[in-house]
Design a protein that fits this description.
The structure is a homotrimer of 347-residue chains. The first copy, chain A, is α/β, with parallel strands linked by helices. Chain A contains five helices and 38 strands. Chain A is 17% helix and 31% strand.
Chain lengths: 347, 347, 347
């Protein structure tokens, strides 16, 4: 159950849900919950018939239900009738969450934060405990920086962005507006580049940067390396799950989806709106087109054209790969038969 | 070599080891070590005959050795004769480690810790440097929170639990008794859920929680996401290795073993006592039964019944998969033969 | 673009680049950049002909170009003619970076750092905000410890080493000279070892240590576990990329390369100069020889001899594996044919 700082009444809920309110009493809502966890200050939703019993037993103050539900067969309670109950529920939750974010007003800076002399803080900002902001850091309006996060020199964070606790931003990183970076993520660490000089691995200095565009969301414990000379770029609206590795000079297009534990080697490009499922690996200097879907655990070592759906190792057309996997189950039998034929042949 | 804060004498060691002491002098033990690293204040053990020379040369103050060792053929020294030397050694190490943990007595709170006004600390507790405890956090007796760890609002940590440095616990997380969470792990970050609205990925608010039950151990840099509406749950006694990803609404049964770099997508269930080897991936909405073993790097996209042993991609019965892999080595030869047959056929 | 604290003049640049200066004016250089980003205080290089237009349009103060470039066909500007422009460019960048490191002179300790009473700091050192150094920690000359990094008791860091923000070093860890450890990496957490006693997983105490030898570089969010009894060892000159897992008692040889998301299970050995590409998994108790190359995503469950090049799961000789993968594409067709033959056979 999520308890919000703000509350709404039934009439507001009806309007935001874009539904029709049927009520037996009136109250206010300040929490959202599952059918089981809801109490009389909660809003909950019922959509999937297999949860009908949970619905009947729910203690929610008001329930969003399908608009074609037969009201004569369910108890008289507070309902909002909607075409898509889950979507309407999300609208209400999002409304209440946004109100909380808007409430970053005034300058809240915890006294334990260590802020370099050159940093100018905007009027509306929230800097939490033990945050470190080095020289030259620039923060936009309504930025929130959570406890123990470190932003190194000359980096900038666009307005409305939120960095959760224990994030590290290396120097000269550029982060856009309304970006979310979850705990433990490291942005701008050195790319992995060495030249073998016959005796040891000489480090290739990594002096490029990282650009994270607007509305990107980055999960927990993600690593995004800085470019060698140019920049590593994550374009607008892309969403990155936990424990993903993005190497130096990668360019990730707009609105891409990178699921957990994906790894992309250096200088590769992922096209707009592509989806990489969990644990996918992309080799270096690869171009993945737009609207490509790559199934979980696939390994990509060749360029992929726009719109393709691929999987396996090496990643291949989905239909062919399915046939291959199906055939593999018969491989031991085929092998036996093959040995029999060979034997016959030799006679 | 591990040096303990407490020490024991030979008689105590004999009792804890459940063995028989043979001694030439008397002393105290305050460290445990390998045969090579031990000194005269150390206890060490000898079990595997291939380390016989190391045993003869060891400087350990007392040695745990097999009870059937021929004492006439080895030097006169301090020995504890045991049926299973390694297990007896572990018993002594565990005894000394537990004594250290018990010694969390009195309230130790480093002055740099930032503790919200509503947090009530129990009598026996150890809060280290720069720890941040937000409003509404509740801690049980004998909890240890290491340096730079952040616990966000309304989370609770059960008695005897230990959080290592730089851990982040998101709001409203519930952690049971005697839980260990190693450094860099992130518990309760947002699940990865979006709805494509035709123009951009709309975030699905993640307002569920995380429940970690008693005696769970979590390695370093693990990520466990909060539920979308309900909870992500890790049940009693389960052990999780480093860099594991657990997504929203996953339910991991009791006493499961998740090895390093395992990734489990959302809303999946892992049964009690199942073992997932390193780098295994589980798709979303999958049910893995009880006492299932999944070999390293396997990919699971279908439910798995209780007691099965599977591997490969897609994860298949171990015996079949072995045959398939064996057959694959002959595949190039089979292909050649197949081409020959085809050619003949065409004539 | 990387702006350096120090600058050099053209004559110095000529000498370090080991090239020949041709100049139209004189200035100083305090930054290095790509052709596009360079300004008149920058050095840049031109080597690959496909960037000829960027070269012509570059605003760099001085450009390193191939020594056989026809000067009559390019504008009169400041050039350094070199045999290998990229290498010469790297030499200059490295020179300027080293000067910055050398400039760790004097004792800089941020007042927020929490340093135990027994820690003796050398004359030249840089300890940043909120760093925690516990009892018994020993630091060499010119060590840099970045913000929010925690070094637990009795660990030692050799001279010239640099720990980036939010690193955690567990107790009794030994780190050599000129080691770099990037943000979020955890060194010395407990190995993953349990004994099932029929009712629960009993923890095997992990009382060994970790030794990181000289000139090792460790990426971001890496995890290296301490040994059970002996040590986990990373030998001299080895480079480890982001999100790599190294388990208890592993021994990684000299000058090895471990790419991102590699996972090595317990008690395995990797030989000197071996290269493990991204997402490779190594089972426990495996010996990988020297100068072995393992392709991305491979799974290794058997020992590998010196010099081998392997890939796949299970990792096999590269040539054989390529043939297998090629044959697999024809497998569905082979299967069809096989069914036809079987049918004929039955008649």
């Amino acid at each position: 159950m999520k308890i919000f700082k703000n509350s709404i009444n039934f009439a507001q809920a009806e309007r935001i849900a874009q539904g029709k309110l049927i009520k037996v009493n009136d109250s206010i809502i300040n929490s959202a919950a599952s059918l089981e966890q809801a109490d009389n200050s909660s809003i909950a939703f019922f959509q999937d018939r297999k949860f009908f019993d949970s619905f009947l037993n729910s203690k929610a103050g008001v329930l969003i239900i399908p608009k074609d539900e037969d009201l004569s067969k369910i108890p008289q309670r507070n309902y909002i009738l909607c075409e898509k109950p889950y979507l309407s529920f999300l609208r209400i939750v999002s409304f209440l969450l946004e109100k909380e974010t808007e409430s970053v007003s005034g300058k809240k800076v915890h006294p334990s934060a260590i802020i370099a002399s050159s940093v100018v803080l905007p009027e509306n900002i929230n800097i939490s405990s033990n945050v470190v902001l080095e020289q030259g850091v620039r923060l936009g309006d309504r930025v929130e920086i959570d406890a123990n996060t470190v932003i190194k020199k000359n980096s900038q964070i666009g307005k409305g962005s939120h960095l959760f606790p224990n994030v590290v931003i290396y120097p000269e990183t550029i982060i856009g507006k309304n970006v979310q970076i979850h705990s433990g993520s490291i942005i701008g660490s050195d790319g992995f580049g060495y030249l073998w000089d016959g005796k040891k691995h000489q480090k290739i200095p990594q002096i490029g940067g990282v650009i994270i565009e607007d509305e990107v969301e980055i999960g927990a414990n993600v690593t995004i390396d800085r470019g060698t000379l140019g920049n590593t770029i994550i374009k607008k609206g892309t969403k990155i799950d936990n424990l993903v590795q993005i190497a130096h000079n990668d360019i990730i297009g707009e609105n891409a989806i990178l699921c957990a534990q994906v790894g992309i080697a250096g200088s590769s490009e992922i096209g707009d709106n592509s989806i990489l499922a969990g644990q996918v690996g992309i080799a270096d200097h690869i171009k993945v087109g737009k609207k490509v879907t790559i199934a979980a655990q696939s390994g990509v070592s060749k360029n992929i054209d726009d719109g393709k759906v691929v999987f396996g190792y090496p990643a291949t057309d989905m239909k062919l790969q399915r046939k291959i996997l199906m055939s593999m189950r018969e491989l031991p039998e085929m092998r036996k038969y093959f040995h029999k034929l060979m034997k016959k042949d030799k006679k």
